[in-house]
Design brief:
With 195 residues, the chain is mainly alpha-helical. The protein folds into 2 domains: 48 residues, Arc Repressor Mutant, subunit A; 123 residues, Tetracycline Repressor, domain 2. The longest helix is centred in the middle third of the chain and has 22 residues. The relative contact order is 0.09. This is AcrR family transcriptional regulator.
Length: 195
């Protein structure tokens, strides 16, 4: 029997039973969100439905925000792959301004697709809200803005362009103002033209 050695800087390989538990927890939580909405997601109920101890859920995900991150992970990975290695205009090869527009449009679609989960992240602590996906989005956008607008405060501009993409605001615009995702994207285009 061969034994895998740990790689420096990498977490240890996951045990098979731990991987199965993690997958079962994510599947159960996904079903619960689909059936009852994300606001009603309870780690205790997820543990009970997944037939694991509640301690297993907390050890694995830390808290509710950690579980939510796991639930949005597949969509987030697809978005990140698109803007890091995908075809233009979202991926490398297009001018920075075109990539910024394509990225913001993709992010609107991303937030709409799992809006309830993103709202829960935003309602959590500022650490949860502004870490994880937000930090990746911010870094990518700030890099593109630095290319497009040398000398501008790219980090501030990245925050300013990400602010209208709050899942809470998008939900309000859709529910109260009757705006479609396409209208929100059109508004972002107007904002970009002002830059």
């Amino acid at each position: 029997m061969t034994r895998e050695l740990p790689i420096a800087g990498q977490p240890p390989a996951e045990r098979a039973d731990a991987a199965r538990n993690r997958q079962r927890i994510i599947e159960v939580a996904t079903r619960m969100v689909e059936a009852n909405g994300a606001a009603n997601l309870s780690l205790d109920e997820v543990a009970r439905e997944a037939n694991v101890g509640v301690g297993t859920v907390y050890r694995r995900f830390g808290d509710r925000s950690g579980l939510i991150y796991a639930l949005i992970d597949a969509g987030e990975r697809a978005l990140q792959e698109a803007f890091m290695t995908g075809p233009p205009p979202i991926g490398p090869g297009a001018p920075p301004a075109e990539r910024i527009r394509a990225f913001l449009h993709a992010l609107v679609d991303r937030k709409v697709a799992q809006q309830e989960l993103f709202v829960l992240l935003e309602m959590g602590s500022s650490k949860a809200r502004f870490s994880g996906p937000y930090m990746v989005h911010h870094t990518h956008l700030a890099t593109l803005l630095a290319e497009a607008r040398p000398g501008a405060d790219a980090r501030f501009l990245a925050d300013a362009l990400l602010a209208p993409l709050s899942a809470c605001l998008i939900g309000y615009q859709q529910a109260e103002r009757g705006m479609s995702a396409e209208q929100i994207k059109s508004g972002l285009d107007d904002l970009l033209r002002l830059l």
